[in-house]
Design goal:
Blueprint (H helix, E strand, L loop, with lengths): L9 E4 L5 H12 L3 E6 L3 H13 L4 E5 L5 H15 L4 E3 L15 H22 L1
Parallel strand pairs: 1-2, 1-4, 2-3
């Protein structure tokens, strides 16, 4: 991306408290976007990403929302819009996985992974649209 190519844009990055999502959030902010750093459980990680962005002159906020829950996705978008304006960029990065033998995976674990990895992106895209 060229410097500040996203100036004035608002982005949501799901699962942005660590790893690839954090890197994406930092890159979007570096390109000029205001970024909602979404997290499900890692408030400390999300705050660290926000601090890095704001320390470099960017705009960011941490928003807790579980992408498996439609009402939480609506709140994620509402909080982002209320703070920065209309959302123009969505990065579906949140994901769940567990390395274990097939026979060890419970129905609850299957639904956790499926709802995070399949339903979550659908819910966020629906709200984005």
């Amino acid at each position: 991306m060229t410097a500040k190519a996203l100036h004035g844009r608002v982005a949501i990055v799901t699962g942005a408290a660590k790893g690839i999502g954090a890197g994406i959030a930092l890159a979007l902010a570096d390109a000029g976007a205001a970024v909602a750093v979404n997290y499900a459980h890692d408030l400390v990680g999300a705050r660290n990403v926000v601090e890095k962005i704001t320390a470099n002159g960017g705009r960011a906020l941490a928003v807790q929302a579980d992408v498996r829950e439609a009402d939480q996705i609506v709140r994620l978008f509402d909080e982002t819009r209320d703070t920065f304006g209309a959302v123009r960029v969505l990065v579906n990065n949140a994901g769940a996985y567990t390395f274990q033998p097939l026979e060890a995976i419970t129905e609850d674990e299957f639904h956790r992974q499926f709802n995070t990895n399949v339903l979550g992106p659908f819910l966020t895209m629906r709200e984005f649209a």
